[in-house]
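User: I want to check something. If I give you two sequences, will you return the structure for each one separately, not as a complex?

Assistant: Yes, each is folded on its own. Here is the first sequence with its structure:
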Amino acid sequence: MGLFDRIKRVLGANLNDLVSKAEDPEKMLEQALLEMQEDMVKLRQGVAQAIAAQKRTEKQYNEAVNEVNKWQRHAQLALQKGDEDLARQALERKKTSNDTSVALKTSLDQQTIQVEGLKKNLIQLESKISEAKTKKEMLKARITAAKAQEQLGNMVSGMSTSSAMAAFERMEEKVLLQESRAHSTAELIGSDLESQFAKLESGSDIDNELAALKASLNPSLAPAPEPKLLNPEQPTNTAKATQPVDADLEELKRQLDRL
């Protein structure tokens, strides 16, 4: 492949790529529909012109037929009047009018076929334009949805999901670490209090055991028993002891009095 052919191909490919990128589907649909409508306007104008020409030809044909009929009547009248030369001239004019009418009839038939074809084409084009309008609205809706989806995709792809998730994971680790520290601190405080109370309890047991050991070795060092509190309403032990003596004395006196 020659150098110029390669350059031509590269330039053509780049140009096609630029054109493809520059094409906006929505604008292209609008332009295509506009061109179809312009064609319909031109076709309507062509149909109108063809119909007008058909009507002119039809009028000329009817006039030619009337001329044929007129010269036919003139020829008959001339023969009736015995003027054969005049009748011949009338027949010659009839032939000319008849040739004209035949040519006009051929042209009229062709124009009629042409007008019918143009009308069918116009109907088909109008149907295609109506269908194109419906498709355009559907395609515009699809284009809008595709653009929205593309924008959403770009937004999602532009978001740093991995870094955001990593940040969440880091925050979760910090929270877990903070909770672990708080739990450890609570356990340390609780164990410290328990150890202090355990020391107090163990210290009290040791003191009691030490006091008991001292008392066993030296009874004088034994702790005096704690005095019991008496209820002022109840009598003392002395009062309880004298009550039976008094009763016995009174009983002895009664026995002596009976003697």
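And separately, the second sequence with its own structure:
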Amino acid sequence: MRNSKMNHAPMGWNSYDYYDTTVNEANVKANADFMAENLKQFGWEYIIVDIEWYSKDAGTMRKNYQYIPFGDIEMDEYGRLQPDPARFPSSSGGKGFGPLAEYVHSLGLKFGIHIMRGIPREAAHRHLPVKGCGESANEIADPSSICGWNPDMYGVRKSVCGAQEYYDSIIGMYADWGVDFIKCDDICNTNLYRENQYSAAHEVEMLAKAIEKTGRDIVLSLSPGPALIEKAWHYEKYANMWRVTDDFWDEWDLLKAMFYRCELWQNHVAEGSYPDCDMLPLGRIGKGFDEGRYTRFTKEEQKTMVTLWCMFGSPLMVGAELTQLDEWTRSLLMKEDILKMVSNDYTGRQVERDEKHAVWSSFNKQTGERHAAYFNLQDEEQTICLDWNQIKQFPIEDNQPVTELWENKDYEADGSVLSVKVAPHGVKLFVCK
């Protein structure tokens, strides 16, 4: 059921890391303008409005609540959430995100939104009708299925009249708006329910069925993680992306742990099917929490993150405020010779890993291009020594030169063995054509 007409993992911008719950229409347009002018040519194309776009009081109590309990929301007569017109003026008059999506499309980009699974609690409490059937919201809502960190929604019951119709109605509305990407939250891992962490699997299926009915190519992304490896078949069948980690931020321990997660999921990357390492916390982030900050990752750690995400084949979503990018961060997002590895033509695999280092390889089955990356997982510089011929995807002739892509520098092996110094938490990424 999933959209498999994708030649590479999605690449784009998501509002969450910088704006938290407070993004508005002007912010979205500014970032879309920047992407179209500076990044689109390198493969970046999605503009995603993240959580709480329907909230009228989002961010007003941030010191106490990220998500205000039973806050003031914008909703239509069928219990379908709508953009807050004060933050998104073009949505007034029942237009929804249609005008904003049209603006993004006019730039040659694609438009996406974040949603919470289920139906608004307020719609259930008010017994609002479900569009397209005779049932009401309270009849399909499951009050025993809730999110542990966001108070806005009830889950939707399984196999009851009106449940699929509800999902059909909201997804049909999104399709009419021109939505190209849906990030659904509290669904990949319903971690409040430890005995059944995939308790909303039926809602994933209803979402996929509703998307299929629209006839529109809409990417379905599932959050949060960690995704359950034993449910890989289900994610692959019904979704395009699923988070393999909980929220990822700019901490080395979280980045180091991603090597394990990528090892676990590496065999599940395929066309239209992308385990998701979460957003890239680069540049300026965190304004929704305070005044914002520059990423805490060192430059070496930033290169390690981008290299791992690309070699693994993860979707790439930048959380920075794009209009405030410094030259260093901008250069990371324009490394075409590295970013291209998220294409379906490349297959990335871990070669070896221990507490001190990791090695990954990537092979392009169309061109024969080969990559190998040395990752230093230690807190001090180390020399990593490897025999190229031990890497199944990277056999080279003795003394054949290879190019390191971050430095754009040629290296020559001693026979088939290359020894190279790698900075703390850093990486050397080699290509052989």
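Because they were folded independently, the notes below concern the second chain alone. The chain is about 25% helix and 25% strand. The radius of gyration is 22 Å.
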